[in-house]
């Protein structure tokens, strides 16, 4: 753990971004070998290492699942598969830069690999000495570079875009997701509305009643996740509207 500022010192949060090009880290190496984007949604410690849940887009799920053969410290499991991507659990027994930052007191907000370059954005709360956190991390990960360092007034909520995509693919049925995404893209949620539920139903070749059923079920689940957390959406709810 990093040094804590004396006397409970308070002040602005320090946001830092590191860039890593060492392909020994799976989230960097996979993004390079598959020319894809990979983003961390969740990270949990395990007795044998770290379980990292990644959202991967831009490549076939089967190709990502087969990559664990190329890394001695990596075991890949497919959690959810969709067109040109999927949600994967990476069980990593080697170094994990995001976990190391968290151990130093920083709060990783984004961990993303794009075409062979890793990006880690983290926020260092005021009670930790940001210079010590940065220096300690760079000493442990010499392939990393500090890209930016700036102050913010408060900590960003820990609900990343990738985590939200995970919610879309795990809490909603395929039909619910299609309906609510189509409605959003068509301007159904603009004010004033740019289209009606009847317009969306016609585009999807479903009845207005079916549109209302799916869109309300999707909205209910997303609001439940927002207020109560993903675990509150029961698995059997995914059968609604199939």
Concise synopsis of the structure shown:
With 242 residues, the protein is α+β, with helices and mostly antiparallel strands. The protein has 8 helices and 8 strands; from the N terminus they run E-H-E-E-H-E-E-H-E-E-H-E-H-H-H-H. It has 2 domains: 6-152, no CATH class; 172-239, Arc Repressor Mutant, subunit A (Orthogonal Bundle).
Describe this structure in words.
With 242 residues, this protein is of the alpha+beta class. The chain has 2 domains: 6-152, no CATH class; 172-239, Arc Repressor Mutant, subunit A, CATH 1.10.10. The protein contains 8 helices and 8 strands. The chain has helices at 26-33, 61-65, 97-103, 130-140, 161-171, 174-185, 197-204, 208-228, and strands spanning 13-20, 37-46, 49-57, 74-82, 85-92, 107-114, 117-124, 144-152. The chain has an 8-stranded antiparallel sheet, with helices on both faces. Helix 6 (174-185) packs across helix 8 (208-228) and helix 7 packs across helix 8. Residues 3-9 and 234-242 have low confidence and may be disordered.
Mean of all residue-level pLDDT scores: 81
How far apart lie the N and C ends? 48 Å
Give the class from helix and strand content and strand pairing.
alpha+beta
Any low-confidence stretches, pLDDT <50, length ≥5? 3-9, 234-242
Tally of strands: 8
- Major sheet attributes: 8 strands, antiparallel
Q: Provide the β-strand percentage band.
A: 25-35%
**Number of separate helices:** 8
What is the helix content?
25-40%
- Spatial ordering of strands, largest sheet: 4-5-3-2-6-7-1-8
Which value, in Å, is the CA radius of gyration? 21 Å
Sequence of secondary-structure elements: EHEEHEEHEEHEHHHH
Q: How many independent structural domains?
A: 2
Shape: globular
């Amino acid at each position: 753990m990093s040094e804590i500022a004396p006397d409970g010192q308070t002040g602005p949060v320090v946001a830092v971004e590191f860039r890593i090009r060492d392909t020994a880290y799976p989230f960097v190496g996979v993004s390079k070998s598959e020319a894809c984007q990979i983003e961390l949604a969740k990270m949990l410690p395990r007795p044998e290492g770290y379980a990292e849940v990644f959202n991967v887009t831009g490549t076939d799920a089967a190709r990502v699942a087969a990559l664990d053969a190329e890394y001695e410290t990596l075991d890949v499991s497919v959690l959810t598969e969709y067109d040109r991507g999927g949600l994967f659990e990476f069980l990593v027994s080697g170094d994990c830069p995001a976990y190391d930052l968290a151990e130093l007191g920083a709060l990783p907000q984004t961990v993303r690999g794009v075409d062979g370059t890793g990006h880690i954005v983290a926020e260092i709360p005021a009670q930790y000495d940001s210079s010590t956190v940065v220096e300690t991390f760079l000493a442990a990960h010499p392939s990393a570079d500090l890209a930016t360092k700036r102050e913010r007034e408060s900590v960003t909520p820990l609900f990343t875009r990738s985590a939200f995509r995970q919610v879309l693919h795990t809490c909603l049925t395929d039909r619910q997701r299609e309906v609510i995404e189509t409605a959003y893209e068509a301007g159904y949620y603009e004010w004033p509305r740019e289209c009606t539920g009847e317009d969306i139903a016609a585009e999807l070749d479903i009845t207005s009643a079916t549109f209302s059923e799916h869109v309300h079920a999707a909205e209910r689940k997303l609001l439940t996740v927002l207020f109560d957390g993903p675990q509150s959406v029961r698995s059997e709810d995914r059968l609604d509207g199939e």
